[in-house]
């Protein structure tokens, strides 16, 4: 039954607007990225005899066809903000292993069918997911909650020390219709 077919409550002061579905019956999020080329893979942790095991990336998930050229981690203190950044040629793959972060994306590619789209995803160990971000998509990360967040990035091209593929804007830039701070 769709939300339009649900019976309206009677006798209420106000009925409001019914919620739209947010998860499938298998508890997979219904929030496909509105940005062309961005992929999200919800991941399940598996309980083991001494903790949990969480796969972060597998080639057969077919999130993209790019190699893994470098893996690095970033710690973010509570409330820390990365600011907006984009790459001309590098594909990012973000995974939060500790704490919780909000990843915000803005499609700044003029030729993209989703040009101007804005999208957010909260990820962390309680709801693990990997987010792939193609070149030209501006992204910023905010650490949420009271603990230090640990963010992994599995890029397709290793960092070039002599010519970094990083373009930056401040977290409150007027060029993106969302303030990270």
Automatic annotation (TrEMBL):
Its EC number is 5.1.3.13. It comes from the Bacteria. It is an enzyme of class 5 (isomerase). It catalyses: dTDP-4-dehydro-6-deoxy-alpha-D-glucose = dTDP-4-dehydro-beta-L-rhamnose. Residues 1-24 are annotated as: Disordered. Catalyzes the epimerization of the C3' and C5'positions of dTDP-6-deoxy-D-xylo-4-hexulose, forming dTDP-6-deoxy-L-lyxo-4-hexulose. This is dTDP-4-dehydrorhamnose 3,5-epimerase. It comes from Mesorhizobium humile.
